[in-house]
Amino acid sequence: MSITPRLVRNLVRKIHLWLGLTIGLWLVVMGLTGSLLAFYPRIDAWLNPVGAVGQPAASMDEIYGLLRATYPERSAHWRIEIAPAGQPFQARSLSAEDMAGTRFAPLMVWIDPHDPAILRSEQWGRYAMTWVYDLHYHLQLGPRGAVVVGGFGLLTLILLLTGLVNWWPQPGSSFRKALSLRRGAAPVRTLYDVHRLVGIGGMALLLPMVLTGVMMSLPAPTQGALSLFMPVSVPVSPAPVLEQADDGRQVSIETALGTARSIFPAAPLRWIETPASGAANYAFKFETAGDPNRRFPHSTVWVDRHSGRIAGTLDAGKRVGTASVASWFYPLHSGEVLGLPTRIVVCLAGLLPLVLFGSGLWRWLLIQRRHRTPAAG
Length: 377
Prior knowledge:
There is one protein chain. By secondary structure, this protein is of the alpha+beta class. Among the domains are: 5-38 and 135-230 and 335-372; 49-126, no CATH class. Helix content is 48%, strand content 11%. It is built from 13 helices and 8 strands. The protein has an 8-stranded antiparallel β-sheet with strand order 4-3-2-1-5-6-7-8, covered by helices on one side. The longest helix has 33 residues, at 5-37. The model has no long low-confidence stretch (mean pLDDT 91).
């Protein structure tokens, strides 16, 4: 039997159909959870209001002292997020118990930065939006779940590409016809038109969403693939410990921060990471030009806690190779890259799988019912 264009097209159509029926519901879940996560800090604040907070007035040492006094049983290692004015600071503590098995469940603490006070504390995964986050990222299955999500994402890329092939006009047809919606047609035809028009219209949104999701879920294969086209960047790691005897002395956070600001004087501070017992360095993360990440920037200054000297720096805007490309995955996937407009786009894009799966499944069920109904006469 010879392979003809018609045979290939029929095969592509069947692949698209059965992939859609197999992973379509999963894709709907990913889309809807992704829509929520585009605004998850705002939704979480709405679900768990803590009231108004004042302008930051307390020193970082006061805030850190409050955390240590309130949770003396936890490690000295805290990550403190510097929130915009009028919002509470958020601190995270990750102990060995929080990482037991396949868990990732840091203690999350919200703090009033004006008159330091604990406003709220929750364990990651035990409140709504972090549960949604874990469902989206790894299906509540731990690290192995991320591999499953990445695998399903690869199948979704095939689903999208076969849909594009199915939509593409055949020889003798036109793009105008392929982009038309027949009025007054039978339900099966109307559902087909809706499915293909929403699919082709949303392709420019869905492809980058799925592709960046796959790359974040499968970092090692992604690194290997990118290395074929560009140099491999050295992974970011904490700066080496400066040679200094530990005599118990430790510079304050404010003193270390003043030193760190000398490297990025105009950049907004986003995170402060205090050293764990036995570690030597504070880490200060700044939002710098050239780094597309706003909430989770990569530009870092490490300051030795004993001497107060700079132990290392990283300017994310000067990175090249695989690390530079990978830094775009999260801001593109989450919609963070251009702020509110792209978050709205990502939120709307997350609704497309529901329309596509719903219209495709409904049409398939109508066709199946027609085939099961005996012909009259």
